[in-house]
Amino acid sequence: MASDFQRAKLVSMFRAFDADDNGYLDQRDFQALAARWRGLPRVRPGSELAGRVDALMLGWWDLLAAHVDTNGDGRVDLDELLAMVDLLPTLREVVAATAETVFDAVDENGDGRISPSEHRRLVDTWHGESVDVADVFDRLDRDGDGHLSRPEFTELWIQFWISDDPAEPGNQLCGPVPGTA
C-alpha cells in the first residue's frame, strides 16, 4: 500500500504521463511520452537509441497493463497505478536496466556524465513542461563533482521508483515531489 509520500510521488508521475489529461493512462499516453523523449538531441529518428527509448516507454505501458489494469479496460487510473507500489521492489533489476536508456537519452554530449543542464532537460522532458528544479541537482550530486555518473544515476533512478524515504535524493530525480519540503 502506498504511503503518503509515495502517493505524492506517483500522483506527480501520473500527471506527467497523462498526456491528454483525461484522468487515466493508456497506450496513447506512453506513445506521447516516447515522442517527447524523441525530442532530445541524442534520440534521433531511426537511431538505435530512439528504438530503445520507444521500447522503454511502451514497455512501461505493457508492464502497467499486465500488472495493474485489473479490470482489463486498457486504461490505468490512479488507484490502479498506486497498486504498482507493492510490485516495484520486486522489479529492482528491471528498474535498474531502464536507467541505462534514460541516461543515454539525457547525456546530450555523450560524455558519460549528466550535467545540471542535462538533468534539467530530463525533468522538463519527463513532465512535458518546464519545472523549477532550483537546488535539486545539488541534492542529487552527493559527491559534489558537478555531474552524475552512470552508477550514481542508476542508484538515483532506483530510489525514484522504489524508495519510500523522502530523505533519499533519488526521489527528487524527476523534479521536486509536490507537497514535500
UniProtKB/TrEMBL annotation:
InterPro entries: EF-hand-dom_pair, EF_Hand_1_Ca_BS, EF_hand_dom, EF_hand_pair_protein_CML-like. Coiled coil: none annotated. SMART domains: EFh. The keyword Nucleotidyltransferase does not apply. Residues 5-40, 66-91, 128-163 form the EF-hand domain. SUPFAM superfamilies: EF-hand (SSF47473). Keywords: Metal-binding, Repeat. Gene3D superfamilies: EF-hand. Pfam families: EF-hand_7 (PF13499). This is Calcium sensor EFh. The lineage of its organism: Bacteria, Bacillati, Actinomycetota, Actinomycetes, Kitasatosporales.
